[in-house]
Amino acid sequence: MSEIYRASTTAPVNIAVIKYWGKRDPKLNLPTNSSLSVTLSQSDLRTHTTASCSPSYPSEDALLLNGQAQDVSGARTQACFRELRALRQTLEASDSSLPKLASYPLRIVSENNFPTAAGLASSAAGFAALVRAIANLYELPSSPTDLSRIARQGSGSACRSLFGGYVGWEQGAATDGSDSVAFQVAPASYWPSMRALILVVSAAKKGVSSTTGMQTTVATSSLFPSRASETVPRRMAEMQKAIQEKDFETFGKVTMMDSNSFHATCLDTYPPIFYLNDVSRAAIKVVEVINEAAGRIVAAYTFDAGPNAVVYYLEENEKLVAGLFKAALGDKDGWKGARGDKVESNAD
Ligand code: 2P0
């Protein structure tokens, strides 16, 4: 019997407060703007992945997601496998006693416990977990920054799920993507009272994939150039300062305005892309009512490429925010639930 080598990991979902939307290089997933996210810690918002390899496996690499075989021949998955194998080969070349794992077929088994491809950043947690599981299997000495460079090639937003807490993704300038990596703005422990309420409006697969949608936006939206070159760079600085100063009002305002800006460029895409629905708009209204009642910003909504809302708030306002949401949206069609969530404490 040939030996089977195995390693497991989990990676969390991250939800951007400054959105990534647009690629300057679709092959390497190099973005047209930097972005910033908060990594969520809830145990059922993670991808669990086991990577194994063995000389006894069938010759093809294989990936099982939620029990279903996936196509691994795509350029993104292949790029991750190739880069990780190359790093393992370097290790093996420097130490002949190491088993030749890089030459064995890989088998990856992943489970998401949240809706896949419904705008809940499933590809982010998925590729982050895949890359870290293989890196662990290969016993690579790579840093989270190095792994973020690889995960980015699987899915752009995945690079941010290699870190916990408040995480930026620097767009970089190099054509080879060497400087397009994630970095930690602050650990979760720096601002531990941050919470996220997740409103699962719909668990259906989204109509327009992010990759297709963002490239159509880049090609057709007249709002997009100023968003990428002026609005986002200014907001990246404002957001990092707000986090450093634990200034929720600014954090919340910039979060909501950037979500609105992203969805405006979607609507300005031709043909237009609609990710928000009536329940999403009702959620925006509830946040406005909460903030008006409080006389300041205590809740902030954001929406990714789908109708589900994420509402950030501080623990001290839990009753007000979560309570009003239940009262206001509890009987709406399509309303699936709300839960409070802590920010992920580290990249584990
Ligand atoms: C984000 N989204 O920053 C933004 C906000 C969706 C809206 O990152 O083509 O799945 O795999 O690089 O990472 C979704 O895009 O796209 C995304 P690819 P990805 O979280």
UniProtKB/TrEMBL annotation:
Protein family: Belongs to the diphosphomevalonate decarboxylase family.
Source species taxonomy: Eukaryota, Fungi, Dikarya, Ascomycota, Pezizomycotina
Domain Mvd1 C-terminal: 196-348
Designated name of the protein: Diphosphomevalonate decarboxylase
EC primary class: lyase
Domain Diphosphomevalonate decarboxylase-like N-terminal: 11-182
Reaction(s) catalysed by this chain's protein: (R)-5-diphosphomevalonate + ATP = isopentenyl diphosphate + ADP + phosphate + CO2
One Pfam family this sequence matches: MDD_C
This enzyme's EC code(s): 4.1.1.33
Single Gene Ontology BP annotation: sterol biosynthetic process
Source organism (scientific name): Lophiostoma macrostomum CBS 122681
SUPFAM superfamilies reported for this sequence: GHMP Kinase, C-terminal domain, Ribosomal protein S5 domain 2-like
